[in-house]
Structure formats: structure tokens, C-alpha cells
Amino acid sequence: MSASTATLPAPVATGTADFATVDTPLGPFTTIVASDGAVLASGWTAVTEELRTVVHPGLRPADLRARRELGAVTDAVIAYHRGDLTAIDPIAVRQRSGEFLQHAWDVLRTVPAGEPITYTAFAARSGRPAATRAAASACARNAAALFVPCHRIVRTDGTLGGFRWGLDIKRRLLDLEA
């Protein structure tokens, strides 16, 4: 994975980050980006504060500045929802946590659209086959929904499991990618 697609190391947080909300077929989608354009948080909400609070405290911006669009990030969101499922792949993401979660988020970015895997398989791909709960935690703590596609992880029996943005959105994302 190239540096442009990997979860980037976390620099010291800055005071202000930009955000933009776009309409998608699944509802409003908001993205918060750092000054260098890396995604700090994203999801199907128009409530920006809901997203700001899921950013790691060491990266969490003190202030948010509304923008009409965020260039390549907004373009990727729109293109993805129109069916270009790889449009999100080159977008840089920045999250912070322990070594396993950092690695697990990078692994999530390698799960291809249309090929969901189980939490057990995700744990194995992340190098800890017995750590299914830790793998599920990586999904639950993922602040950059869509760009780090935790929606592509399902239960062993094929049911959806959890998703911060609701099971209806998770199902619709998987259907779009099928």
C-alpha cells in the first residue's frame, strides 16, 4: 500500500479543520479533513459535532470551518455513491490509536468492494487470528467510515453485525458494492 492510501501517522493536532456535507442516496455525508486534506472523520450525518467527537483527542480539531466542498475528498464521496467503488481508495486518512488498531485500519482498506469478509477473517488478516473481538473493536472505533470501509466486515453467519451509521446504511453499501 502506498503512503497516499495508508492510514497516515498522526502529527500534532491543529486548531482548525475543514468539513463539508454532501447529499448522497444514503443521506447527508459529512467529512472532516486536516489542513493537509487527510480525512479525520466521516459518516452519514449532517451533525458535524457528532463526527468531531469520534476523532482521537490528539487529533481532534478545536474549531471546524464549513466548506462547500473538499476537492478530491468530496469528488471521491460523490463518485463512490454513483458507483465508482474505487474512488475512495487514494484518499489519505489519519487516525490514531494503539499499534493493533492502526494496523487493522490499514488492513480494512485492503478489503475489496464486493468481497465482504467475516470478523474472524479480518482478525486473521490483521495478524491476530484469535482476536476477533479486537478486530470488531477496530471497526467500532473507526472514525473514517467509507474511506476505511468497516462496512465490509460481517458476522460469520453472514449477518451484518454493528455499524455506527445503522444497519440499513451498511446493507445498502454492501448492495451497492455487490
Major sheet: 4 strands, mixed
Number of strands: 8
How many angstroms does the end-to-end distance come to? 24 Å
Assembly classification: single chain
Please write the string of helix (H) and strand (E) elements.
EEEEHEHEHEHHEH
Query: Rough shape?
Result: globular
Provide the low-confidence segments as ranges.
1-5
Strand arrangement in the largest pleated sheet: 4-3-2-5
Number of helices: 6
Strand content: 15-25%
- CATH architect. name of the largest domain: 2-Layer Sandwich
Coarse structural class: alpha/beta
SSE diagram, text form:
Blueprint: E1 7-8, E2 16-24, E3 27-33, E4 39-43, H1 48-52, E5 63-66, H2 72-81, E6 93-94, H3 99-108, E7 117-118, H4 119-125, H5 132-140, E8 153-154, H6 167-177
Parallel strand pairs: 1-6, 2-5, 7-8
Antiparallel strand pairs: 2-3, 3-4
Helix pairs in contact: 3-5, 4-5
Catalytic activity: a 6-O-methyl-2'-deoxyguanosine in DNA + L-cysteinyl-[protein] = S-methyl-L-cysteinyl-[protein] + a 2'-deoxyguanosine in DNA; a 4-O-methyl-thymidine in DNA + L-cysteinyl-[protein] = a thymidine in DNA + S-methyl-L-cysteinyl-[protein]
GO biological process, one term: methylation
Keywords: DNA damage, DNA repair, Methyltransferase, Transferase
Description:
With 178 residues, the chain is of the alpha/beta class. Helix 3 crosses helix 5 and helix 4 crosses helix 5. This is Methylated-DNA:protein-cysteine methyltransferase. GO terms for molecular function: methylated-DNA-[protein]-cysteine S-methyltransferase activity. It comes from Nocardia jinanensis.
